[in-house]
Specification:
Elements lengths: L1 E3 L9 H6 E6 L6 H13 L5 E6 L7 H6 L3 E3 L1 E3 L11 H18 L3 E5 L1 H13 L4 E6 L10 H11 L4 E4 L2 H10 L7 E3 L6 H5 L13 E6 L8 H11 L7 E6 L6 H10 L6 E5 L4 H6 L3 E4 L8 H8 L4 E4 L4 H4 L6 E4 L4 H12 L2 H18 L2 H16 L4 H5 L6
Parallel strand pairs: 2-3, 2-6, 3-4, 6-7, 7-8, 8-9, 10-11, 10-13, 11-12, 13-14, 14-15
Antiparallel strand pairs: 1-5
Helix pairs in contact: 2-16, 4-5, 5-6, 9-14, 12-15
């Protein structure tokens, strides 16, 4: 069953034109990009912007809260599962594309800001055709998804050259855009993700997993092969008898198809009672506060929201050296950085923190301070406001939010 939502759209007067930002994505489902938009868009209203989020696929469960915060969300309601079968939904996406064209033509926004590759390839051409003055694309992952898809690479490279700005959320992504995808250096800016520090600071430890005598580790990542859960379970199997007893690992995240294989792996290693698969949760801050340290062992990343949430909760983080992980975690100060795909290196880092409460406490305090200084949502939104104002004034993304050559 589907219904189409038709909330009010901004009138096409000159004041709204100059202050309207159309954010274009596929949905407001539960995910890193979606959470980022749900935090950024409402706060931009305080800077005088009129944000409108257009979802080409479906509105998603986060849409209601975003609308309650005063942001218009346009997209269809869908009853049922959340499987991203965009091919089957092609007729609905095509209809949404035509509605987006009508919206841009009617409201004549000054800024269109696109997130995620599918939305980029579908929506950015409309911003080009209708000559939207400022066209922004945000890249939030490395371009591994382009491998074996030469057409995707060519289309995106063609679009990049026609964007006013291309914004990365890690230095590795920014350099990749310039070195591999043909972006001009002056087009590329860097804005790190931000998180709501107050929501994490005010959270109380989850009572079900809190215990002064139990070592608690946490990984917040959907159960997808590239998130490295199998490496983590293998690492824990190597050191299970050397960890402080008792211990537990909280695995928080949606099962995207490998959950049973991971459970079987844990059982085979005798870790069934130690590892808790909690699924998708709305109480992540409370779970973070119940943990002694966090782990992110991905094989690939852009810049992880879960990572900065862990830092904000005062957790030292064990992370793999992919994407922006090593930009967020200073090795030896706010956590430990290890190579990806290496369970033994991961095991050594976990054991080092597990065996040294004083070191965990020192790193945790540094982690919280780093998150407060670098990754607050307020800092992030301020940078977006500065970006949009600068682009409308003719400045380049590099001048407004460029990479620091010294870093």
């Amino acid at each position: 069953m589907t219904t189409t939502s038709s909330p009010a759209t901004p009138p096409a007067d000159s004041e709204n034109q100059s202050r309207t930002i159309i954010f274009l994505t596929m949905s407001l489902d539960i995910g890193g990009t979606e959470k980022h938009l749900s935090l950024v868009a409402p706060r931009l209203r305080a800077y005088g912007w009129n944000p409108v989020i257009v979802c080409l696929w479906r509105r998603g469960p986060m849409a209601a809260a975003v609308e309650a915060a005063g942001v218009t969300v346009i997209g269809r309601e869908v009853c049922g599962g959340s499987s991203r079968n965009w091919t089957a939904d092609a007729p609905h996406i095509a209809m949404a594309w035509f509605r987006l064209a009508a919206l841009i033509r009617r409201t004549r926004p000054q800024i269109v800001h696109v997130f995620l590759p599918v939305a980029y390839m579908l929506g950015a051409p409309l911003a080009i055709v209708f000559r939207v003055p400022v066209k922004v694309m945000s890249r939030r992952s490395l371009n591994l998804y382009q491998r074996g898809r030469s057409a995707v690479h060519r289309i995106e490279s063609w679009l990049h050259r026609r964007m006013t700005a291309v914004i990365a959320n890690s230095r590795k992504i920014a350099r990749q855009l310039i070195e591999q995808e043909g972006c001009a250096p002056e087009q590329v800016g860097l804005i790190y993700n931000g998180t709501d520090l107050s929501a994490i600071a005010d959270a109380q430890p989850h009572p079900a997993f809190m215990g002064t005598a139990r070592l608690t580790m946490i990984v917040v990542a959907n159960l997808i092969a590239y998130k490295g859960h199998a490496d983590l379970i293998a690492a824990l199997g190597e050191i299970a008898d050397r960890l402080p007893q008792p211990w537990q690992l909280l695995c928080v995240g949606r099962d995207d198809g490998i959950g049973q294989a991971l459970r079987d792996q844990a059982s085979a290693l005798g870790l069934k009672e130690n590892i808790h698969f909690l699924g998708e949760r709305s109480d992540v801050p409370q779970l973070l506060k119940a943990a002694d340290f966090g782990i992110l062992c991905s094989h690939q990343e852009g810049f992880s929201n879960a990572l900065i949430e862990g830092l904000a909760a005062g957790l030292p983080m064990v992370v793999t050296d992919v994407g922006g992980n090593a930009e967020a975690v200073t090795h030896g100060e706010t956590g430990l950085v290890v190579p990806p795909h290496q369970p033994q290196a991961l095991a050594d880092a976990i054991l080092a923190l597990a065996s040294d409460p004083e070191r965990r406490s020192r790193m945790g305090a540094a982690a919280r301070a780093s998150a407060t200084q670098r990754f607050s949502i307020e800092t992030c939104v301020e940078k977006y406001d500065r970006l949009y104002r600068g682009l409308l004034s003719g400045e380049s993304a590099a001048r407004i939010a460029g990479l620091d050559p010294a870093q």
